[in-house]
Amino acid sequence: MSIVLVCNHRDPKPWVKAFKDKNPDLDIQVYPDVKDVSSINFAISWQHEQGVFAQFPNLKVIASMGAGVHHILKDKTIPKSVKVTRIVDDNLTKDMADFVLLNCLYGIRNLKFHAQNQLDKHWEIKSYQQPEAVKVGVMGFGVLGKAAAKQLKLNRFKVNSLSKSRKNIEGITSFIEDELDQFLAESQILVCLLPITEGTKAILNYNNLKKLPENAQVINVARGQHMVEDDLIQLLNEDHLSLACLDVFQTEPLPTESKLWSHPKVSVTPHVASMTDPNSVVNQILDNFNRMENNKRLKNEVDREKAY
């Protein structure tokens, strides 16, 4: 049995080294340099080209290199018999929570405003908000959403959450899907950490974003498909929204012609909110490889119908 690494836009060498350090006898190959496609049973993937897995007739499992799996699930050529897993890692979780907090502070302390003034060599003082005066709405309350909400609460922000079912976490007000309008109306900062499903695609559209309070900030660290980018730009131009911090985009890498690059109210980062350290996650991936070999239940398996 062999493993194939399929990872566009990521250097495979640290991954190969991490696996070889754990098991020098492991046969791990890097796509497209695969010696025998029939030997591949297990794939590790990030942003693969659609249809690439069709050439592996004995593929049983595809493991995402990160917490997200949309890049795998959107490939309809993958047989239904192939199982999909995702990464659940304390470092990933902490990094995401820190990044969300960073962007919330970036907004309330007007750092985008001051960065632009530095470029313009313009000195202007602007008052800022205290965290205690700001209510943050966290859309999606899985592992990452809970961690982000707790980190924000720890740093004195008021926090609401939105999820399918009611949650009970001290100091965090829980909303369910039917209460979306009220949740949005209270969110001075909106953080999207939803999974990408048929029901959440384009949820950050004009109608929903318009329900946010005047001068609200939007942070998207989930998936680019959640956001209707033209609608966001329109609301920024209308001064309904004051700032958008975007780490994910409809098309990645973000095309050079995108208006988001140069918009004065948009902060762009290249999908770096939470990046997988191979050495931190190699054990859980190898554990699932061994479980596959022994016909045992996989850990962190994704329900392909629910898409999470």
From TrEMBL:
GO terms for molecular function: NAD binding; oxidoreductase activity. It holds the Pfam family 2-Hacid_dh_C. InterPro entries: D-isomer_DH_NAD-bd, NAD(P)-bd_dom_sf. Keywords: NAD, Oxidoreductase, Pyruvate. SUPFAM superfamilies: Formate/glycerate dehydrogenase catalytic domain-like, NAD(P)-binding Rossmann-fold domains. Residues 105-273 form the D-isomer specific 2-hydroxyacid dehydrogenase NAD-binding domain. It comes from the Bacteria. This is Glyoxylate/hydroxypyruvate reductase A. The lineage of its organism: Bacteria, Pseudomonadati, Bacteroidota, Flavobacteriia, Flavobacteriales.
